[in-house]
């Protein structure tokens, strides 16, 4: 909510507008699903259509709010452009460069434990160093072979190196790997999996609440 409020304030500035924002989420916050960024982006795009602000500016406002509030570092850009994106360089296009992995995939999500506050995690310098070192390696490896299978394999490798996954997360990933590929959502006590959808949904239901989602290829947009 604070990320959304920050984005809204950055759009309207000091103008004496009275604005009511309602955000409806299909997924829980603080579980690595990017809901803080999604709320800020949705509000920014909605207001941009009212005030005549261009799309890139609206995305930049939401991205800046996300970074300032430490609720994420790249969720907004991925949500804005859609698909499965690989960040070749940080930031918003044209400065930041992204690559896409093609495909229409159904994803199974499972909330395994309590919430993890992204802002708290991003305060840990030791963890940020591990994320940076392993993250660069994984991105470069993915760009050499940009496939969904390689993405999930590298994501598992990243998860285990960074060390955020607890025993229950590890067990859920191992069970899901019998019917596809799975890894931990960053940053949350939850996992995502792609493979035999029905079997994944069934096996993961014993770990927590399960959701079905599908990759959107077009990115966030205002609906008239």
Structure write-up:
The chain has 2 domains: 2-99, no CATH class; 101-214, 2-Layer Sandwich (Alpha-Beta Plaits). The chain is 48% helix and 15% strand. The chain has 9 helices and 6 strands, in the order ααααβββααααββαβ. The strands form 2 sheets. The protein has a 4-stranded antiparallel beta sheet with strand order 4-5-3-6. β4 and β5 form a beta hairpin. The chain starts with a helix and ends in a 10-residue tail after the last strand.
Layout of helices and strands, plus pairs?
Elements (H helix, E strand, L loop, with lengths): L1 H11 L22 H17 L3 H15 L5 H7 L2 E6 L7 E5 L4 E6 L6 H4 L3 H20 L3 H15 L4 H10 L3 E5 L5 E6 L1 H8 L4 E6 L10
Antiparallel strand pairs: 1-2, 3-5, 3-6, 4-5
Helix pairs in contact: 1-2, 1-3, 2-3, 2-4, 3-4, 6-7
In short:
The protein has 224 residues and is of the alpha+beta class. The protein is built from nine helices and six strands; from the N terminus they run ααααβββααααββαβ. It folds into two domains: 2-99, no CATH class; 101-214, GHMP kinase, C-terminal domain (Alpha-Beta Plaits), CATH 3.30.70.
Question: Which descriptors apply to this entry?
Answer:
224 residues, four-stranded antiparallel sheet, two-stranded antiparallel sheet, Alpha-Beta Plaits, globular, alpha+beta
* Percentage of residues in helical conformation: 40-55%
The CATH homologous superfamily name of the largest domain equals GHMP kinase, C-terminal domain
Beginning-to-end CA distance, first to last residue: 23 Å
Beta-strand share of residues: 15-25%
